[in-house]
Write a structure and sequence with these properties.
The protein is an alpha+beta fold. The chain has three domains: 6-47 and 229-420 and 594-756, Multidrug efflux transporter AcrB transmembrane fold (Up-down Bundle); 71-200, Alpha-Beta Plaits, CATH 3.30.70; 458-580, no CATH class. The protein is built from 30 helices and eleven strands. The strands form three sheets. Strands 2, 3, 4, 5 and 6 form a five-stranded antiparallel sheet that branches. Strands 9-10-8-11 form a four-stranded antiparallel sheet. α10 (213-228) runs antiparallel to α28 and α12 (265-286) packs parallel to α14 (329-349). The protein is elongated and about 105 Å long.
Length: 769
């Protein structure tokens, strides 16, 4: 990245200033359509959006859903003291009848199954006693989780596509329940469980997260007025930032993008990077010598900061672009959107902002003194102090960095690597009712993680008696496995049919009975929706079993996958007729496991690529071996210490905190680029290390300080989010930016002293012992 010569840059910026009204008019024309498309960007925090559509497992799951439907599973748990009390059964029955009236909802419960044995059900004491005998006469209903100690469950299958239809359906469910279960209720509590409710919670909470941007805007206003003490400067900042945001988010809208769980980081990263760049530009502008005209100094300031600002935005943009290698959809989209948004912001900052500076006549320190006069005293004091304590400063930074690396990657035989979080419930605020209900009931229900075992054969194979017998054996093996909570398949429905007919719930043993149950299956397929959910109609070539488990992390899913395949091999050995059939494991459960598996490669690969790109950028900009390495010390120190903080506080790696490394490295490198740019500027003037450090701190120290405050405050706003991953990300990122700035003013100058071998012009007095 070679910058144009100073003279050429000054001529370019002089032309921009002459065409200032043209640029203002151009952005005024672009603003309305950009705002329109920005407002069209929708929100979908569904966890199934975490995998990119081109992923093979995602494609397999979509193919499965085309055959058997893409319904979402949830559970209503009627918590009661006596599940067989007549008033309880009457109320549960009323709720289920109300839910059946919703087109997208298919409810199923032990009570609805029992209704098939009755001409009518009035919830009389006699009916209640008959229901008790029916339920206790088999263990099928209890194994499916439809009844248990202290609860009756209504399983809901939601045929919805997209967050809007899901939210409308869940609203209809809530309305139907309220109408069918007025107070006083015989139910102790009606608890809603399942991924649809989790997704709806995340969607609603994430919409509130964008309100946190108001805090950032308020901070920009306060900081701007404190730093520059000018309403005209504030207007120039806010107008420039508004255009950057509108054009960047408008681009997302034009490409059909959709905000997801980590999407608030996109506009925030663009805003903080653009604001920090404006601070660097304007801080240089306000330092106008009295003898220089405003126009000449503005052109000088723009040309002087062009290379450093361009290099910092370029490094940040390309660093985020490295996230596009991720297999996690929101992270890939975030990387692309931030990179494009920063490219747009670069153009806006160097065209619109200079025009607004001139049109609004933003004052310099000659007209209005700015804050931060103490920086000059700090610049005189720091070089000598950093020389005196150079070894302790560098040693402590290296020691803390090494501890952070151990915290992240672990120590063989001593400390395991950091845990990756995939349990979707953990993305919910721990004080939320939904979270508390799930954790309270997780031992009472078989689990909420769903995995589908897709079995494909030739036409008619799904209704062959021997195949059905083999599938029933396979299901029994699964149900006996501790990794499996519930296994439901076509033979579950057929067993219930036999039980309803008074033939018991066991699988038939004679060949004649098996032939009959296979014939019953073919006859019932056109009439029984529950059976259609497990067996492909017409061709009868495909079927599946649904496994419900508590597997919520990668290790648990691997055990579950291994168990399913092991039991299938056993079933094939016992029933060779299954051998020609193909088994695939699909569904949201495996996809979530794959997401977890992709998180660490995302961290390592994207971070490595970001380091390489920024290193190459420094190579071109600084052309100094020591500068290339030392410029990354503060950011690497801050990142590794963040992992140490995460380990000590028990924060897990998740879809948000996994981005700490790339975000902090890409954003905080701005400070190091400006630091070294002016450090080398001082060296080119023949200055010593001490003089170069003083020059750097005098010119860039104020901007580094306030740019860090902007970065930290912007992300710290996420610390108020109701979503734990965003809240953790915001707090950690803010702390990392502060740590990086501290390293800018401590470990970095100390390392420069050590590597240069120079002594200060003024030898500091020895420290008192």
């Amino acid at each position: 990245m070679s910058a144009p010569s100073a003279g050429r840059l000054e001529r370019i910026f002089a032309r921009i200033l002459r065409a200032r009204w043209l640029f203002v008019a151009l952005y005024a024309l672009l603003l309305p359509p950009s705002t329109y498309f920005a407002l069209r960007v929708d929100q979908d925090n569904s966890l199934d959006r975490l995998i990119v559509p081109s992923d093979p497992d995602f494609i397999a799951t979509r193919a499965f859903q085309e055959v058997f439907g893409a319904g979402e599973f949830s559970l209503l748990l009627a918590e009661v003291d006596d599940p067989y009390a007549p008033d309880v059964l009457a109320r549960v029955d009323a709720i289920e009848i109300a839910l059946k009236a919703i087109p997208q909802v298919a409810p199923n419960s032990a009570l609805s199954i029992f209704r098939r044995t009755q001409a009518r059900f009035d919830a009389t004491p006699e009916d209640a006693e008959a229901f008790r005998r029916f339920v206790t006469g088999t263990d099928l209903l209890r194994r499916q989780g439809l009844i248990g100690d202290g609860f009756l469950a209504i399983a809901l299958s939601l045929e919805v596509s997209g967050p809007a239809e899901r939210n409308r359906t869940l609203a209809a469910i809530s309305a139907a329940i309220s109408a069918a279960d007025p107070e006083p209720s015989p139910l102790r509590k009606l608890t809603k469980l399942g991924l649809p409710f989790v997704n709806a919670y995340l969607d609603e909470t994430q919409r509130d997260a964008f309100d946190l941007f108001a805090l950032f805007v308020a901070f920009v206003v306060v900081l701007n007025l404190f730093l520059y003490r000018s309403w005209r400067t504030l207007c120039a900042f806010l107008l420039t930032l508004g255009v950057c945001l509108a054009l960047s988010v408008g681009y997302i809208g034009t490409t059909g993008g959709m905000f997801t769980l980590v999407s608030p980081m996109v506009p925030m990263t663009i805003l903080v990077t653009a604001t920090a760049t404006l601070v660097y530009l304007h801080s240089r502008f306000v330092e106008r010598p009295p003898e220089r005209s405003v126009r000449d100094h503005q052109i000088f300031a723009l040309a002087n900061k062009f290379l450093a600002c361009t290099a910092s935005i370029f490094a940040t943009a390309v660093g985020f672009a490295a996230l596009t290698i991720s297999a996690i959809r929101p992270i890939r989209e975030m990387g692309l959107w931030v990179a494009v948004g920063l490219a747009i912001s670069w153009v806006v900052v160097f065209t619109l902002f200079p025009a607004l500076q001139w049109i609004l006549r933003t004052p310099t320190r000659v007209e209005r003194p700015s804050a931060g006069g103490w920086i000059d005293r700090f610049a005189a004091w720091l070089p000598l102090w950093s020389y005196r304590f150079r070894w302790p400063l560098v040693g402590s930074a290296l020691g803390l960095s090494a501890a952070g690396a151990v915290a992240l990657f672990g120590l063989p035989g001593v400390l395991p690597a950091m845990r990756v979080l995939t349990d979707p419930v953990e993305y919910i605020d721990h004080d939320a009712t939904l979270y508390r209900d799930v954790r309270r009931l997780e031992k009472s229900i078989p689990g909420m993680s769903m995995t589908d075992v897709w079995i494909t054969g030739g036409p008619g194979s799904a209704s062959e008696p021997d195949v059905l017998t083999g599938l029933d054996r396979f299901q029994q093996l699964l149900e006996a496995d501790p990794e499996v909570g519930v296994a439901i398949g076509p033979t579950t429905i057929l067993r219930l049919v036999r039980y309803l007919g008074g033939q018991g719930d066991a699988w038939p043993e004679t060949a004649e009975e098996r032939e009959q149950i296979a014939a019953d299956l073919e006859g019932m397929l056109s009439l029984e929706p529950m059976l259609q959910h497990f067996v492909q109609p017409h061709a009868l070539a495909q079927s599946h079993l649904t496994v419900i488990s508590r597997a919520t992390d990668e290790e648990a899913f691997r055990r579950l996958d291994t168990a399913i395949r092991r039991h299938w091999e056993t079933a094939v050995r016992e029933n060779p007729v299954l051998a020609p059939l193909e088994l695939k494991i699909v569904g949201l459960g495996p996809l979530h496991a794959k997401m977890a598996q992709s998180l660490v490669p995302t961290l390592v690969e994207s971070f490595t690529l970001t380091v390489a790109i920024i290193f190459a950028t420094f190579l071109v900009v600084f052309r100094s071996g020591s500068a290339r390495l030392m410029a990354m010390i503060p950011s690497l120190f801050a990142i590794l210490v963040m992992f140490l903080v995460m380990r000590l506080t028990g924060m897990p790696l998740n879809v948000a905190t996994i981005l700490i490394a790339s975000t902090v490295l890409g954003t905080s490198e701005n400070d190091q680029i400006h630091f070294f740019y002016h450090y080398q500027e001082g060296g080119r003037r023949g200055g010593s290390v001490q003089e170069s450090l003083r020059h750097t701190l005098t010119v860039a120290g104020r901007a580094i300080l306030f740019a860090t405050l902007i970065n930290a405050s912007g992300f710290l706003a996420f610390g108020l989010s109701d979503l734990p991953p965003l809240r953790q990300f915001g707090v950690l990122a803010a702390l990392a930016f502060v740590l990086s700035m501290i390293a800018d003013f401590t470990a970095l100058p100390a390392a420069l002293w050590i590597l240069s071998g120079e002594r200060p012009d003024e030898i500091p007095a020895p420290a008192e012992r």
